[in-house]
Amino acid sequence: MQYTFEILGVSPILSFLNHQAESPVTTPTGAEYLSTYQCTLDALLESVEPVPPKRGWDLDKVVDTVVNYWLQNAERIQHWKERLRAAGCENILVSRIADLKALQQEFDQLLGKNF
What is the pTM of this model? Predict the structure, then answer.
């Protein structure tokens, strides 16, 4: 199984919590949306830690995916650090970890493609 990780943006805490609460629990998706108060590698790794056991994913591969994202996207990381700092303490950094194949299938369904 391959995974993908992406930092999506900065959000007010309550907006993120409302979005999570409104997401259908019965519909399994290939993605988990996560949040942290800091834009650090340690904070991102801590946020993904509970996901693999819940989804049956390979923890080592998930961690490798996040670390590789961190190492290969220095400019993006810096951008999101600055945006989070500028947004203030009532905001969080939102990211997504996903099973690449399942995420692709979800996007295909949204676009009406049947492969």
Answer: 0.83
